[in-house]
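Lecture 7, part B: from sequences to assemblies.

Below are the input chains for today's worked example.
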Amino acid sequence: MAFQLRGICKDKPDNTDRIRLLIRGPKGDDYQVFSFPLDYPFNHGQIIKFLGEQLGIPPGELIWPAYIKIPKA
Amino acid sequence: MAFGAKDWIARTDVYLQTLAELMIRIKYGSAKVASYSGTPAANTTTALFTISGKGIIYGGSAKIESTASQGNDNLGVILDGESLNDWLLTWENTFNIHMYHGAVPLLQCYDEVNFKYGWSIPMGLTFESSFVGFYIERHGRTPTVRVDIVYALV
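Predicted structure of the full complex, as C-alpha cells:
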C-alpha cells in the first residue's frame, strides 16, 4: 500500500486560517498531518512536490483520490 | 492424503494463540477537529470550514453571541454538495426543531434576551467527498461565532 492523501481541511481556529493535509501511510493505520497558513502557495503540483520531499517518496508514488479537491480560498 | 490450507496461503489461526479476547471494531481513521472562531461578515454567507475527503462526523457544537437578535440567520452544513438545512434560527425555535431526527445542525439554545444561540451536530453523518459548514448573516451585524466539529477521514 502506498502513501495516500486522505483529505484536505480548511478551517479557522483561534481566528487564524489554516489548511491541513491528512496523509495515510503504507501500513494503513499510520496518519500524518501537515498544516499550513492560508497564504502558503498551494496548488496541486506544489502539494505533490512538498509531500514527496516530506515523505521521502517519488511524486508519482503518492495516491491522490479524484474526489479530494483543494478548498477555495 | 494431504489436507488443509496450502502452505503459501497465509491465515490466522486464532485457536493456536493465547488470546484473552478478540475485538472487532469499525475503523474510521484518525480523528480530527475542524474549528471556526471569528466574526462572519455582515449580510454574507461565510464558509466556516471545508473538508475534502471521505469520512464520518463524530459530533460537534456551535455557539453564536451577538449584541442584538440573529434570529434570521442560519448555520448550515453541506455534505457532498447537498445542503442539509436552510432553516432560520427562529424557525427552528418556533417549531422546536431540536431533536436528534430534526434538521442538521440541531438548535440547542435560542436566547433572544442575551442574544446567545447554540447548535449541535449529531454523530453518524457520513460523507463521500466533502463536508462544508457555513453561516448566513442577515441582520447587518458581525456576531461572534465558534464552531468545533469532530470528524475522521477514512
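Note for the exam: The two ends of chain A are 32 Å apart (CA to CA). Keep this in mind when comparing with the next example.
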